[in-house]
Amino acid sequence: MSPLADARWAGVVMAAGQGVRMNSRTPKVLHKLCGKELVRYPVELLQSLGIGRIVVVVSPHNAQAVRDLLGKQVEYAVQPAVLGTGDALGRSAQLLQGQADHLLVQGGDAPLVRRETLQRLMASHLERASQMTLLTATGVASPDMGRVQRDKQGRVVKIVEAKDWQGHDGAPAEVNAGVYCFAAHWLWENLARVEPSPSGERYLTALASLGVASGSTVQALATDDSGEALGINNRVQLAQLEAIARQRIREHWMLEGVTISDPATVYIDADVTIGQDTVILPNTMLLGNTRIGQECHVGPGSVVRDTIVGDRCRVTASHLEESTLEHEVDIGPYSHLRPGTYLETHVHIGNFVEVKNSRLASGAVSGHFSYLGDATIGADVNIGAGTVTCNYDGQDKLETIIGAGAFIGCDTMLVAPVTVGEGAVTGAGAVVTKDVPPGKLAVGVPARVREKRG
Question: Whole-structure pTM over 0.90, yes or no?
């Protein structure tokens, strides 16, 4: 049975931390891991569990930036001053008190928590009718994390915050992962009882000892993967967690039927999708919202960002940005597709070709050393080596149109705005400054229109 079946759940993401150790003008929760902002991980995880009402607790310094990112898919509570996690969670009371039976609370800087782990945590919380259930990890040596203390019977009695821990910082211990389930009525009744620590902060973790002292059920569930408990406080930890996340992503796609011949050299962002029987070759990066179809070959040495690639395409040692490839398109090596490029089925882009904000119709070919910008190119057009669309006059970007079946000779300069008609031909070295009618030949500098021979 789903943990959501018979209970009303709400979610809270704690994202009000200052992130001073990141040493950055960017708020910590907006730093990216595998191409995705940290705060999106817990929000999307809660959404995947079917939790419809989610509150993100922010601070004055990051509130607007987080709102700009997440928009209206969540609600917001503001913690005006750094007064601890207990105070931060309390800021959501005005929105959630009386609106849910149970709360699932996560930090905004811990991106490795898995959906199945939260499902187990929620199920255990409900089955044991706990007032507080926390996620822990065992055998973790981290000076940044609070320690879980148990009695001789193995029951949780206390959580000691890292800054209050008197033992050896480097010793492995059972640590608090910062993920909690609470019975909502119990939480709101007891949160006000949390006293400030010597630093003036009210710790959410103090609820564990308060609950035990009052006879409430406080339990801990240990994760099978200690990486889930790790959070990010500085850029060293950001890199460490990114390495774990990237390995998870690669393993996921390999198990889904994607061949990755040298996983250590391949980078795949969190939002990328890849079709079955595609091969990703070494030194390749798939970034942003890229979608790769089935039976493609990508790499070696390719970078594909925010691009749609259809089935049975080949992208060899090339850089693609914000472009679309239909099926059976061949790119590279050493070519660059810039934003706004659209290549229809069976287009071939060879080596050292740059395409920007242009559409090439089915069967069009540009084999070598060309620049195609702000162009509309018809079906089965042949673009000769050295062709340049001269699309910028110093003030405006201007369009070049090439009709279906046209043949553009080597080293042709197409000075936009200009149209080359269907079936027309330009001679090698032509500088085309005026439209070429369909079926005609343009040669010379500047090009003059003639009848085609034979």
Answer: yes
